[in-house]
Amino acid sequence: MPLSRRSFVKSIGVSGAGALALPLITARGAEAATGARFGAPGLLGSIESPAIEIIRGRLKNPSAIRLDSNENPHGPGERALGAIRGDFPEASRYPAKTPDALQSALAAMHAVKPDNITLGCGSTEILVMATRRYCGPGRPLVTAAPTYEEPTRVAKLFGAPVRAVHVNDALRLDLDAMADAARGAGLVYLNNPNNPTATVHGASAISAFVERVLLVSPSTTILIDEAYHEYVDDPSYRTAIPLAIARPRVIVARTFSKVYGMAGLRIGYAVANADTIKQMEREQLPMNVNEFAAAAALASIPDTAHIERERVLNRQAKEVTSRVFHDGGYTVTPSEANFMMIDIRRDARAFQLACRQRGILVGRPFPPLTTHVRISMGTMDEMQRAIDVFKQVLATV
Q1: What whole-number distance in Å separates Cα of residue 54 and Cα of residue 170?
Q2: With 70 as the cut, is the pLDDT of residue 155 above it?
């Protein structure tokens, strides 16, 4: 059963709903929420994050079904919630012990050393750290179009050229073209599975890509974002963490925002060579991970049953939703994440706005795919209600 604000408040015994910013704790925070908020200049300047549109849309539609930000609608597992409750006595203390314990636990989980791990305020901070460290006026960023935009936003803020390579006709990252564009680049950002297209590349393709980039441009760093790692079913896929340990120019970013349901708690991490981690940490905010987030993440690592349950629920929601669009004659790109990309053969913005008017929030347009809509998976009940709206809108827009 999805965790509601009321049930969570009751479970922790807190009388004020504002005590922990509850709408965010239940994995309902907006993606890419770094930097500017509500259009005001933030830490990274005044270039507005795409999350601002999401936040504004939600403020105007507080009761809407939110299928616009790739969140886990079921929230954190019981172990995570129990860890938050148990950690309340530490709320008055600066975080130290628990983040250190989380770092060690992550190292053990990935069979690496603690100095191969650094924590972030969501994986977004990891992306910001890497982009700031390796990009600049003479060090371009190579990325895809469309893909997750935070590295592009940060690169532009710091005067770095951006080389954006369009995805191919199958909406997969064009690895050959990205490798060609990598010569002389400071950083290559590779989102695998890719957001918003939900496509994935197998282990052999990623390994060959890394080797090719480092051959033509040995000083280029490759950041592989595996935010949706746990949702992948493709048997050819493997994490790139072994590559990151073996090659100092490779970094893997992970997050607890997706399958773990902690988008609002803001906790992620990077895995890389120890020297690379030290370089990245020069761009890191001090005490960047809060106590409750670290405690919840630490408790979630051994909770494999919860992760498998979330994988199953996500798969079921995707099957129901994709079947409806397939039956309607629309092209659904095979999804290896907790969202899907559908070619609705009409203006995606008009579809988005029409759905919003009917209480369903879906992803904004992602140029150049202006006839494609990204739909995040909600609960099964949410998807059934949303499907009725989708049918109505497609019959009229």
Answers
A1: 27
A2: yes
What residues contact 1, with CB distance under 8 A and at least 6 apart?
none
- Nearest Cα to Cα of residue 124 among 284, 273, 314: 284
Bond into 23 cis (ω within 30): no
pLDDT at 23: 36
Cα–Cα distances in Å, from 271 out to 23, 132, 284, 390? 29, 17, 15, 40
Residues 108 and 223 in one domain: yes
**Final residue of a structural domain among 250, 284, 300:** 300
- Of residues 33 and 71, which shows the higher confidence score? 71
Which residues form the domain of 12? 5-77+304-394
pLDDT of 92-104, one tens digit each? Answer: 999 988 999 999 9
385: number of Cβ within 10 Å: 15
Non-local CB neighbours of 293 within 8 Å, separated by 6+ positions = 256, 262, 265, 266, 267
